[in-house]
Amino acid sequence: MPIMAGALAVVAASSSLAADRDEGGDSKHGFQAKLEYCKTCHGLSGEGYRGYFSMPRLAGQQPKYIENQLRAFSERRRVNPVMFNVAHVLSPATLAALSAHFKALNPPPSGGGPKEHLALGKTIFEEGLPESNVPACSACHGPEAKGHEEIPRLAGQLYPYTLQALSYWGKERGQGGTRDDTSAIMVPTTHNLTQEQMSAIAAYLSYMK
Ligand code: HEC
Ligand code: HEC
After folding, report:
1. Is position 114 within any domain?
2. How far apart are CA 208 and CA 203, in angstroms?
């Protein structure tokens, strides 16, 4: 009897919705579905993916940073059409669960940056370039580039992604004139690095565990 079956399906669906609500607003199923979706681009272990666009590594990333960036995408302070669509439908509970999940992952670094200027990259990371007003990256991102709270982990990030982030900072981040956007902290640094220095530091970070 098709009508009965339909009615049963409706009852089953609404009772599972009720169960989901008891878990605090976001269903396990919803979380799993979102996670699978993130992984199609960001990699099965959050290791990132080097394609036509690079999909950044999320593994080991600071949850606070992930949450900040998703908010920036959905408020269009950080410009990216793909991530706008992803971010603006995430509930706070799902976002917190996804951020915690990625923090716990630890795949090996992607590597892949050109190797000829790794020594320069290391110097910039550890000491900065006082003559060009570039601070040591480690001063904020930590001696192992693991980040802290709203300061991102950089270790193991994809070379082309880091290079792009540094090269186009002023065009992609901090848009819309919000004064308290955390992206402003990086503006002087990205201004004062040459393209070659950006490449050296991006390569160095791509090999860091
Ligand atoms: C269709 C592909 C795609 C999907 C699906 C996707 N992303 Fe992204 N994501 C990207 C791209 C591309 C970027 C880089 C954007 C840029 O260059 O600014 C990005 C950037 C990010 C960033 C910023 C990382 C950083 O280091 O600043 C976060 C956080 C993020 N994504 C989280 C997620 C989460 C969580 C999901 C699942 C709910 C997800 N993404 C799903 C493509 C995707
Ligand atoms: C004064 C503290 C500070 C210093 C010094 C600093 N950073 Fe940052 N950095 C930040 C903060 C805060 C963010 C997050 C910005 C945001 O929310 O958009 C960031 C973000 C980044 C990102 C974006 C990461 C991503 O996943 O998209 C890169 C790349 C980066 N920094 C590289 C560097 C490099 C390379 C240096 C050294 C030359 C450096 N930073 C020095 C504070 C700092």
Report:
1. yes
2. 9
Q: Tell me if the pTM is above 0.70.
A: yes
Residue 57 lies in a domain: yes
Atom of ligand 2 nearest to the CA of 78: 18
Burial class (CB in 10 A: 0-12, 13-18, 19+), 119: exposed
pLDDT at 179: 64
Check residues 167 and 178 and name the one with the higher pLDDT: 167
Nearest atom of ligand 2 to the alpha carbon of 124: 38
**Which of 32, 37, 41 to mutate for ligand 1's pocket (most ligand atoms within 8 Å of CB)?**
41
Mean pLDDT across the chain: 88
At 128 the pLDDT is: 98
Q: Is residue 176 part of a domain?
A: yes
Report which protein residue has its CA nearest ligand 1's atom 33.
38
CA 19 / ligand 2 centre spacing (Å):
42
Q: Is the minimum distance from the CB of 153 to ligand 1 under 6 angstroms?
A: no
Residue 134, domain extent: 29-206
Q: Which segments of 26-143 are extended strands (E)? A: 49-50, 54-55
- Distance (Å) from CA 51 to ligand 2 centroid: 23
* More confident site: 120 or 19: 120
Q: Which ligand is nearest to the CA of 55?
A: 1
> What's the CATH code of the domain at 110?
1.10.760.10
Q: How many domains does the chain have?
A: 1
What is the pLDDT at residue 21?
Answer: 39
End-to-end CA distance of the chain: 60
Give yes or no for residue 5 having a pLDDT over 90: no
In whole angstroms, what is the distance from residue 95 CA to residue 65 CA? 12
